[in-house]
Amino acid sequence: MTETPAPEPTEDEDARRADLVEAFEQKAVRLAKRERLNAERADAAGGAYPVALPITATIPDLRARFGDLEAGAETGETAAVAGRVVFSRNTGKLCFATLQAGDGSRIQAMVSLASVGDESLQSWKDLVDLGDHVFVAGEVISSRRGELSVMVSKWAIASKAILPLPNMYAELSEETRVRSRFLDLIVRDRARETVVARAKVNASLRATFAERGFIEVETPMLQVQHGGASARPFITNSNAFDADLYLRIAPELFLKRAVVGGIDRVFEINRNFRNEGADSTHSPEFAMLEAYQAYSDYNGIADLTQRLIQDAAVAVAGSTVVTWADGTEYDLGGQWDRVSMYDSLSAASGRAISPQTSLDELLVFAAEVGLEAPPHATHGKLVEELWEHFVKGSLTRPTFVMDFPLDTSPLVREHRSIAGVVEKWDLYVRGFELATGYSELVDPVIQRERFTEQAKLVASGDLEAMRIDEEFLRALEHGMPPSGGMGMGIDRLLMAITGLGIRETILFPLVK
């Protein structure tokens, strides 16, 4: 039998192997330096990793105070700072290193023979590598080239890096950025800026809610029954209760219990989990905002949602006109359009489609336009599929798509004047659904009927349909006031403001 020869390695594979060999060799060298540091500091706690250092300032502080020094200027002020070495150049009697703080700000360390002596200078050359955290103390000056610097009088390694940094001047692959976010944060300004932007968004959302009298709560992540959305859940098991539990797909049914209990304006920002596909706009684990306001409706909630997003944009970008990662400007300002789902579908498709259009007619039309019917097709599911096919791609400005089919929205109140639809909107920004809002269904009798219809879908094999939730129905039977509610993905809000994909907006996304 003739053996098939192994394929020749590609250039990329050769480069990866070379990188692995180099990293292995560097690791061995650095481990030896770690041992030397531990031996030299045998009487000091931590050895190559000291417990504490006498730091008196941060790199951002020094840049704020002395960033405008003229070239060659001296301050006469001594500071002790620490940072990660991201650039190093050793010469005979003078060594230079660039130290980077966590926020990306930098300062130069100058280690000279005259300031530290021959033994200390040689130790610097022998022991300090790119990636090490280094403590330096000395006078703050500006170099002859105008670089803000510390003229080092004493120094110490604060944390020895055993593995080398990636090339600071080469673009990291997307795979590396996602799988090794810690490296991404070290190397790339955009990664750090995105973390800051997310924090600003969350702070802005909470501030906008606080101004309007909303109370933030936390509801269960582990639930005995999943509900609040149409999605496939993750299932786990509790040893203590000897029962299956579900990671929540939405906090809705518990937040509504809070409204029943008298918390008239309530919101939560927390994690949801949906056992579904992952793509550029979906992640199995994601951050979600949900809010409910008693004595409001889907129009009032749309106004609130627009304000929340516009305030968040201003918090991050300083304006409602945001600049995306690719340089495109997008205007989140002004009053956003509100269009009817059925009317916009009819206009775009050239065929009159209403809540009374039969399922058979919709199936025929879908086949005519080459659209595959979804599993367990209903009137509402097909209308939504057709709307996405004909209308979704044409939306450029932020747009509230109003008045959805009744059978796809089991937790929503029927429209006050249009038969066969519910008072629900989806907000589309940048071509994807960013948020959804309702006039909430508060009649427990109708809610039970809707749950019963959903249970029939479950029995027919629809894994995303809801079950009957008796505890939630019991809460509704105690009386829930007329209310508006909304849900919005925090990751998607970052996408709308920054123009990034969902894996970039999540600090540590789930990957295989």
Automatic annotation (TrEMBL):
Coiled coil (UniProt feature): none
Domain Aminoacyl-transfer RNA synthetases class-II family profile as annotated: residue spans: 198-509
Pfam families membership: tRNA-synt_2, tRNA_anti-codon
Classification via CDD domains: LysRS_N (cd04322)
Catalyzed reactions: tRNA(Lys) + L-lysine + ATP = L-lysyl-tRNA(Lys) + AMP + diphosphate
Keyword Metal-binding attached: yes
Major site of localization recorded for this protein: cytoplasm
GO molecular function ontology, one term from the record: ligase activity
Key words, A-Z: Aminoacyl-tRNA synthetase, ATP-binding, Cytoplasm, Ligase, Magnesium, Metal-binding, Nucleotide-binding, Protein biosynthesis
PROSITE patterns found in the cross-reference section: AA_TRNA_LIGASE_II (PS50862)
Gene3D superfamilies: Bira Bifunctional Protein, Domain 2, Nucleic acid-binding proteins
Compartment(s): Cytoplasm
Lineage top rank: taxon: Bacteria
Annotated residues for binding of Mg(2+) 2: 433
Cofactor: Mg(2+)
Cofactor note: Binds 3 Mg(2+) ions per subunit.
UniProt binding sites for Mg(2+) 1: 426, 433
Subunit composition and interactions: Homodimer.
Family membership noted in the UniProt record: Belongs to the class-II aminoacyl-tRNA synthetase family.
PANTHER family: LYSINE--TRNA LIGASE, CHLOROPLASTIC_MITOCHONDRIAL, LYSYL-TRNA SYNTHETASE
Annotated NCBIfam families: lysS_bact (TIGR00499), PRK00484.1 (NF001756)
Protein known as: Lysine--tRNA ligase
Organism: Microbacterium deminutum
Gene: lysS
